[in-house]
Amino acid sequence: MCPTKLFPRLTSDAPSVLSLVALLVALLLLLVSPTAWAASETTPSLSLGQASLEEAFGVDSPLGRLSYQAGRGFHLGNTGLTIGGFSTVEAEFLEGGEQSGGLEELNFLLSYDPFPFVHVFSELGIGTLAELERGRSGVHSDPNLEVERLYLDLGNRDALRLRFGKFFTPIGRWNLARIEPLLWTTSEPLIVEEVFDDSTTGAMLHGTMFPRGGALSYSLYGAFLDPLDAEPDEDPVKHSAGAHVEWASLKGWTLGASYFAAQLHKGEWNHLGGADLLWHPHRRVELSSEVVFGEGSREDGTLWGFYGQAVVETVRTLYLVGRYERFDPPGGGRAINLFDLGFAWVPVPYFRVKADYLIADHRHELAEPGLRLSFSFLF
Amino acid sequence: MVTRFLGIIVALLVLAPTNLVGQEGRVAVIVHPERSMALSQEEIAQIYLRRKRFWNDGSVIVPLNLPSQAPLREHFSQLVLNQTEPRLADYWNRLYFEGILPPATLASTEAVRRYVASDPNAIGYVPAAEVDASVRVILHLD
Questions:
Q1: Interface touch A49/B65, C-beta < 8 Å
Q2: Cβ contacts (< 8 Å) between A209 and chain B: which residues?
Q3: Going by C-beta distance under 8 Å and a sequence separation of 6 or more, which residues neighbour residue A333?
Q4: Which A residues in the span 275-304 are in contact with B, Cβ-Cβ below 8 Å?
Q5: Are A167 and A181 in contact (CB under 8 A)?
Q6: Which of A42, A45, A50 is most worth mutating to test chain B (most B CB atoms within 10 A of its CB)?
């Protein structure tokens, strides 16, 4: 059966509100299933926590323990449902004179594990809630519910699971965790922002195996549905496919490789390759890098780009951050060299304050130099 | 004078809180008696990093942790995960963004042992001296 018939709402025509309603109905149906209410009375109740994050609120209920942990969400007892999210306040003071700031992100993360072989996940965003801009009077607001991700994971083997829905395109590391509370800088590398569609609507086989010394993960994916809730101005491709493999050593380094092919609207296929690295040579130092080369899904022409980033913890909770990036755009345009220097303060794992200054070797619309600040937190 | 000084030192050592003289000792990684498979230290690390999430029979592994301030947890994290708490926090933030939560936390080693004894899918760690017949030890960590 055609997958589009199985999931008729996974189309670009479907309003995001309808998608949300469908998701919530599905969650509610699963919530009232008998297994979701199963609770053991002979075992101590579990609470979820790690890495100095403690339960901030908790109460026992017929559903099990209802609890909230800062940075880890609200857990609805033994139902397997967790609701959390993140928010970001940003400000930028660009060299061209443009100044703006406001509440830029309020996103919700919904995770549901009703059965051992089922994992439902969604990220819903509410656009710009309040923004001030120099030269424009009043507070600008553009709240718009967006389905950033919505997928179903099936399978009960580490080595093989099937994902279906809308998920981040697994190219490199940055694109899989591109939210302010997880990043060290306020700006994104151009090779993440300008080369490929950040999400894919389709299916993915993925899994992890455990040879000696680490974990070997893979993803094989393809887009064959109309992009779900896509940004109209991004004009995402309808057909793409790719693979990502990653070796995560238990000694603290991770190495990955990516391949991505996208069919542009004219019909021809573009091919992109990439590699990524994360390394902790010292407990206070993190080095990361990504490179891509080939043809992206946004426009025709060969490109290549690279970034290298270093993060050093100077005193406890205060990090110095530096990133160099080079981007050769498709079509033979002038290459851009960027330097991003700044700091991040992480007093607790779920709260992050950042300030960094982007320096460019020449003015370019893709990367405007200037100072950017952000306050972000997970909830 | 030297004898008196040595006597004071000995008295301080005897009266010192036990955590100053290595109270953790040997750590036992425990599972339900029905679980007969063997696990290496690396596999236990992958379980506690939530990379390995299923037993061989397809059941979900339920790893159990102690509260973050517990000395035994710190000892276990250093022995098995070999990572600092800030780096682990970053790691868990990233997984939280994919809907994967860290291991569940129980308040005491007694609670961990009782839970493991009652749930065939659970795995935990306790001081070796607290192990009884209700659970099976799959690995000792020194």
A1: yes
A2: none
A3: none
A4: 280, 283, 286
A5: no
A6: A50
Question: If DSSP codes are grouped into helix, strand and coil, which group holds residue A214?
Answer: strand
Enumerate domains of chain A plus CATH numbers: 3-32+80-378 (2.40.160.10)
Residue in chain A closest to B96 (alpha carbons) equals A72
End-to-end CA distance of chain B: 39
Measure the CA–CA gap between B14 and A99, rounded to whole angstroms: 65
Instruction: Name the phi and psi angles at B20, rounded to 5.
Output: -85, -10
- Residue A362's Cβ-count burial label (10 Å; 0-12, 13-18, 19+) is exposed
Does B15 contact chain A (CB < 8 Å)?
A: no
Rg for chain B, CA atoms, rounded? 18
Q: What is the pLDDT along chain A (379 residues), one digit of tens a residue?
A: 333 333 333 233 333 444 444 544 454 444 434 333 333 333 445 554 444 456 888 899 999 889 999 899 999 988 999 999 999 999 999 998 899 999 988 999 999 999 989 999 999 999 888 999 988 888 888 888 999 999 999 999 999 999 999 999 999 999 999 889 999 999 999 999 989 999 999 999 999 999 999 999 999 999 988 888 777 666 778 799 999 999 999 998 999 999 999 998 778 899 999 999 999 999 899 999 999 999 988 788 899 999 999 999 999 999 999 999 999 999 878 999 999 999 999 999 999 999 999 999 987 788 899 999 999 999 9
What domains lie within chain B, and their CATH numbers? 24-141 (3.40.190.10)
What ipTM goes with this model?
0.82
DSSP B53: -
The DSSP output letter for B129 is G
